[in-house]
Specification:
By secondary structure, this protein is an alpha+beta fold. It is built from three helices and three strands; from the N terminus they run ααβββα. Strands 1-2-3 form a three-stranded antiparallel beta sheet, covered by helices on one side. β2 and β3 form a beta hairpin. α1 runs parallel beside α3. The longest helix has 39 residues. It is elongated, with a radius of gyration of 20 Å.
Length: 110
Amino acid sequence: MSWIAVFLALGVLIGLFGLVNYWGYRRVEKAQQAWFRRMLGEGVEVEQFLQSAPFEYKPLKGSKAYGILDKRTGQEVYRVKTPEEAEAWIVTNTLAERGELPQGSDEPRG
């Protein structure tokens, strides 16, 4: 009987850990979307903006990192660890190039 209680408790702990992990992921996702809305303005889709940007990102061969390429020259200009970082870098630097970076932006440029 005690083994059943141990497995049940373990199952509950695993379930709770998964739920906390999911909530954390959702919170980060909402924060990212809010940042993109603040940077791009209402009504601008991130995917459309990224397609029109002069930069793109691609996974690097033999690595978990992503290289950011300048579409105009084809050269790698920066490296990041995640696609979300790549998208944020592209948005920030494209807006800076256009002179449209919102005031008070504390985002570093590569």
